[in-house]
Amino acid sequence: MTPTPRAIQEPTTARRMMRQYELVERVKRYNPAADEALLNRAYVYAMQAHGTQKRASGDPFFAHPLEVAAILTDLHLDDATIVAAVLHDTVEDTEATLEEIRRLFGPEIGALVDGLTKLKRLDLVSKQAAQGENFRKLLLAVAADVRVLLVKLADRLHNMRTLQHMREDKRHRIAQETLDIYAPLAGRMGMQELREELEDLAFRNIEPEVYATITQRLARLTAKSERVVETIAQVLTEKLSAQGITAEVSGRQKRPFSIWSKMERKSVAFEQLSDIFGFRVIVDTVQDCYAALGIVHTSWPMVPGRYKDYISTPKQNDYRSIHTTVIGPKSQRVELQIRTRAMDDIAEYGIAAHAHYKELGIDSAKEAAREGSVHPKLAAESGAYQWLRRTIELLAEGDSPEEFLEHTKLELFQDQVFCFTPKGRLIALPRGATPIDFAYAVHTDVGNSAVGAKINGRMAPLLHELANGDEVEISRSDGASPPAAWESLVVTGKARAAIRRATRAAVRRQYAGLGRQILDRAFERAAKTFSEDKLRGALPRLARATTEDVFAAVGRGEMFSGDVVRAVYPDHRDERRPSTPQGALNGAGRLVRSADQTMRLTFPGAEGKAEDRSDAIPIRGLTGDLPVTFAPNGGAVPGDRIVGILTPGVGVTVYPIQSAALAAFDNEPERWLDVRWDTEASGSERFPARLALKSINEPGVFAQIAQVIADHDGNIDNISMKRRTQDFTDITIDLSVWDLQHLTAIIAELRGKRPVNSVERVNG
Ligand code: MN
Prior knowledge:
By secondary structure, this protein is of the alpha+beta class.
């Protein structure tokens, strides 16, 4: 016969501290092989550690860990768990240290006490943590071993049972936390009995009047209908036994909290509740469950919509049972739960019930696994409770029962980290997450303006990997925008998407700024006034929704400024620009190489240079986002007079103004940008140029040419040759030089070489 865990005992009213021998006896009652000496040592150690400490009630503090241990003996837990319960408050509240506990009680108990101490510290950090679901996950992640959670729940249960000694505001907070976090956690772990007691204790403290009213009404109802319960139980038992089914039928009254939540949920009055009474039918086998169901349904009419088969489809927390409601004797609605003994243990004691199978031997454990948990339908299911199922499978397959507790290590949320905002909001993130991910999880605006982070009060890099329980404070700066490089450094999709969006928006803003400047000049050239209002009127003609769209399109080169002028002033006839735009000669662009080794254009407006021409385009911030390239066939070097050509979606290409290629842009004056070399930058970068040589065909020509270029510190990027005639060869050299002077010196030297017939710069 399966040993059934006894119900968790209600506290006796007379408080008397449990004696040393009583604790040992309680354990020995269900585990004759218990380590008596170990239990005694723990008792003495904790008693001495807590010394004369008192609880709020005036009781010796030591009574508390003993009561917690007693609750766990009711759940028939192993020695290590009981000892950990006795020791659970020593490290945090007394002089005791974890090292000492490890030394005296071994690594297993040491690890359990360590887990409990961590949870206790977490309590202090997270007083305001409002999101129960995440906090429960945090508990699970930090606990590391399911036994730590069992002790924690027993600890909370005892604190709730003695809550009346606390100050009222504290009482309310603890009760609310119990309702939000610990009761659901007990539920998730399948410990319904514990959950219900926690809920009722919390409810009593949060809504004392409502609690009193419901309790009184329940008492009245019970007194009135006691005969009904007995009658129904008796009729049921007889009908089942007549069909050869042994069943244990018990009537059960709902708890005040569950009645109240049903009243709240369904907005009904107490009187309208039909299922205050429930009956539990415990039978021997799964087949008997369905046989009993058949008997019930053929004896009384069933209430439609109330039938649920959780044996065929277990709940997430491994709960299995058949539920149905019938119109029973005396036209009473009767709610029934039909299940086997093993299912009932799991329903009441959840994970703690699984621990019992430690004593049962492998065969019954296998059976329990088969009927209690591992259902074929669930094999493919992914869910938070798979680990529980795995645990039971391991138990069933393992060689020794000890392996069960070995495998209760929580793997549940090991791939997540849980952190707090300074205000106590809990943020769940994937493992490996950084403060940047955290910032975006709090709010996109916080992420976009993040410039620094403090972790647990200390400055930390934004790329620091976060750990469980970290309190993260993000420093922000208005107007900051996230560097595009962050995108590859974050782990959350939300952060990645937000960074991409912000980067795109910043680029768009820059193009719009550029477009705005281009338009200003285009209108000026056309001797027309420009205003955004006028432009707004022309939006339909331009097929754009906003003026911002027009600016960005012009900036990107997708729309030409002349078209915009004509859209605003339809009667305007523009004269095309001459082929070599004078205005371009003394532009104000400045080329610099940025940290990521790409060339960028800056404009002296940003530096505020006094000699800037007024028609230059001073664009701040353009640096980061307009890539600069050089004339593809011939390049450009400092000293050349240059012009920039804006290419849609590409950026700016810099041409020497003598480039033949510029003719292609004659009819698109809006694409021309005034740029010029920054003399300070000269000599710090190499720039591309192309030379065309004609040389006599003789051995060693290449070597001589290469030597000249090398002597002058030029870089040859590419050489190609083509034999033109038998005597002469055409050679094209792509090289990079510091500036025009440098290039001119190389050309002069090459021209001086005997085999070289001619040297010309190429401006394609
Ligand atoms: Mn405690």
